[in-house]
Amino acid sequence: MKVRDVMSKDVQIARPGDPIQEVAARMAAGDFGFMPVADGETLIGTITDRDITVRAVAAGAAPSASVVEYITRDPHTAHEDDDLKTVLDAMGSRQIRRLPVLDKNERLVGVVSLGDLSTRVKEKYAGEALEDISRTA
User: Fold this and answer.
1) Which of 41, 101, 105, 106 could be a cystine partner for 110, CB 3.0 to 4.6 Å?
2) Which segments constitute the CBS domain (predicted)?
3) Using CA atoms, how far apart are residues 34 and 112, in angstroms rounded to an integer?
């Protein structure tokens, strides 16, 4: 099975100039805590609710501050034709819960999460990945 078979295709995307308050509000309204950040069709990073809290709010950022100031740049990614087991192993070893998914032209086409994978891959592998992701460094 390939990543494209389980990834979420309806993905909210933040733009570099979006205010952090707007991005946080979209996360709250959609009940998710992760967004890819793209400039046009090019993925430039990711932002999580934790990034907004720890990097922005805790540092005293204004609600109007641009999200690009607080993103994680050069995020790990998966490709839509990658094997699920391989991606799950990589997520576990790198302690990553969500990955942007790119097509062969490096355009963002979705997001795959541990939850997406755990529902489709053998439970044993999902459990091992979750254990790896949750371990303390």
Assistant:
1) 101
2) 7-64, 71-130
3) 11
Phi-psi region of 74 (alpha: psi -120 to 50; beta: other; left: phi over 0): left
Residue at 89: amino acid letter:
D
100: β partners: 111
Closest CA to 117 of 99, 103, 132, 134: 99
Q: Is the dihedral of CA 112, 114, 115, 116 positive or negative?
A: positive
Structure tokens at 118: 């755990």
Q: Which residues contact 41 (CB under 8 A, 6 or more apart)?
A: 107, 108
Amino acid letter at 43?
Answer: L
**Paired tokens of 63:** 């609600």
CB 82 within 8 Å of CB 109? no
Among 2.70.40.10, 3.10.580.10, 1.10.10.10, 3.40.50.1000, what is the CATH number of 3-134? 3.10.580.10
Give the β-pairing of 42-48 and 34-39: antiparallel
